[in-house]
Design a protein that fits this description.
single chain; 480 residues; alpha+beta; five-stranded antiparallel beta sheet; four-stranded parallel beta sheet; binds alpha-D-glucopyranose
């Protein structure tokens, strides 16, 4: 639990903190009974330093498990070898060098994240075989798919060349970005490694793989889409994380969506993601009304929308005091707002003790400040709540096949408004989003019926001719 589950010491078990395999089987069975599919997180880039493979690897240079990991000699300067010189300048995401010195063998080992998370050597066919078998283990247990962690670090430059300096780096930024990660990530064999996993998925009827892939700023978007979506679109697709990094403006969001839709076409499925466990929550980033409007946008877009728990409640970040910090990232690179604890606070179920999350005296992270109002039970009783907005939008998606289809058509963009169509032969839906804090003009074709307003307006004075959209509203009109 050095990185809260992203440091695996046994790939075929459940951490006793959370239960056991029998509990897991019950979970799967109960979920399937309710027509819910279950995906689990799979971490192939690194293990825990407590993993038996790594312990064996540390035993000696010629241990068969040594080559499961990446051990290298220190860099030599002139005729002498200095143990203080790591093999290259690659950095750890969580601060400092990505190389840890192992005094016993006189070599360094590589870790893209914590030293307690040594990277696996995917060039080794034995590693590929082990990982494929682990995926089979979970698929055979009934898991419907995997979310694959940190894939861009899997591919490494085969010669381990230094990353070049980043000329755009400014003091005060995350020090990880001092260099441009062109050699430490996205190496030439990355896609081959990903295919090891998709070929396992193909052995089964109905399994899915979602890649944790962030876009980088170095490669044109179409090329990036091709690189990861292209691996095996029948069984796999990446998350689209751009909504988490897009500034709040109609032009920026329109541009982000239009570019993705244009290059994905009708065959590649988008997984738009507006929040996750590594980024500050939507409400905290943009504000409550803004988040309501973006909920309309996300759930009306094509593809599979990915909601992070609590997003449907309008849950903000929690306040984390210094003595409550859990995240190793915050501990190692403090006070820059990089820590991920604020977005990982307990799910608020009700307004009782600990918001109904735990019967323990103190939950592992503090609750959000306003859990008395922002919780499932309270919101279920209020038709104007975030939860009901999400229920309405999800019902709409479920009831109308057009939302399962890939159609998407840009309708309009200006400095305030972004609008798009979802249509098929029988139904047309127009989504209109006002990013400005005042009323904006927008002339929709006549005959539309209002099906959703993010801020709960009825537009009675306007319809059937819709000409103005209220501040920060997200509206869906139905035609046909
Ligand atoms: C991914 C996860 C993050 C984790 C890291 C290392 O980026 O989303 O939470 O810390 O990989 O496994």
């Amino acid at each position: 639990m050095n990185d809260f589950g992203y440091d695996v010491s046994d790939y075929r078990n459940v951490d006793p903190l959370f239960g056991n395999l029998e509990n897991f089987d019950t979970l799967i069975a109960e979920a399937h009974e309710r027509d819910i599919k279950v995906l689990i997180d799979f971490v192939p880039n690194h293990t825990s330093s407590d993993h038996p493979w790594f312990k064996a690897a540390l035993e000696s240079r010629d241990n068969p498990y040594r080559d499961y990991y990446i051990f290298k000699d220190p860099k030599s300067a002139g005729s002498e070898t200095h143990t203080t010189l790591p093999p290259n300048n690659w950095l750890s995401v969580f601060g400092g060098s990505a190389w840890e010195y192992d005094g016993a063998s006189g070599q360094y080992y590589y870790h893209a994240f914590l030293a307690e998370q040594p990277d696996l050597n995917w060039e080794n066919p034995a590693v590929q075989e082990e990982m494929a078998n682990i995926i089979r283990f979970w698929f055979d247990r009934g898991v419907d798919g995997i979310r694959v962690d940190a894939i861009r670090w899997m591919g490494k430059d085969l010669e381990f060349r230094d990353d070049p300096e980043n000329p755009h780096f400014k003091t005060g930024q995350d020090p990880y970005h001092m260099v441009r990660h062109i050699h430490s990530r996205f190496g030439p064999r990355q896609e081959d490694y990903l295919r090891v996993m998709t070929s396992v998925a193909r052995e089964y009827e109905d399994k899915i793989i979602i890649w944790e892939d962030h876009r980088d700023t170095l490669t044109p978007v179409p090329q990036q889409i091709k690189r990861i979506h292209g691996v095996d679109p029948e069984v796999s697709a990446p998350f689209i994380f751009e909504p988490m990094h897009t500034p709040f403006s109609s032009q920026a969001f329109a541009n982000m969506v239009n570019t993705n839709q244009q290059h994905l076409g009708k065959d590649l499925q988008p997984f738009y993601c507006f929040g996750n466990h590594d980024e500050h929550r939507l409400v905290t980033r943009f504000g409550e009304k803004q988040a309501r409007m973006l909920a309309v946008m996300q759930l009306m877009l094509p593809g599979t929308p990915v909601l992070y728990y609590g997003q449907e409640l309008g849950m903000p970040d929690a306040t984390i005091h210094k003595d409550q910090v859990q995240d190793p990232f915050e501990k190692r690179v403090p006070d820059r707002g990089l820590g991920r604890d604020p977005e990982r606070s307990p799910m608020p179920w009700n307004n009782g003790p600990n918001a109904g999350f735990t019967t323990a005296a103190t939950p592992w992270l503090p609750l959000i400040d306003d859990y008395r109002h922002i919780n499932v039970e309270t919101e279920l009783e209020d038709k104007n709540s975030f939860l009901w907005l999400h229920k309405t939008l999800l019902d709409l998606r479920r009831e109308h096949p057009v939302f399962y289809e890939p159609s998407y058509e840009h309708a309009y963009v200006d400095d305030a408004v972004f609008a798009f169509w979802r249509t098929n032969e029988t139904e047309q839906f127009l989504t209109i989003l006002n990013f400005s804090e005042s009323e904006a003009e927008f002339y929709a074709p006549e005959g539309g019926k209002l099906v959703v307003s993010a801020q709960g307006h009825d537009y009675d004075d306007q319809l059937p001719v819709f000409a103005k959209i209220n501040a920060l509203d997200g509206v869906v009109l139905r035609y046909g």
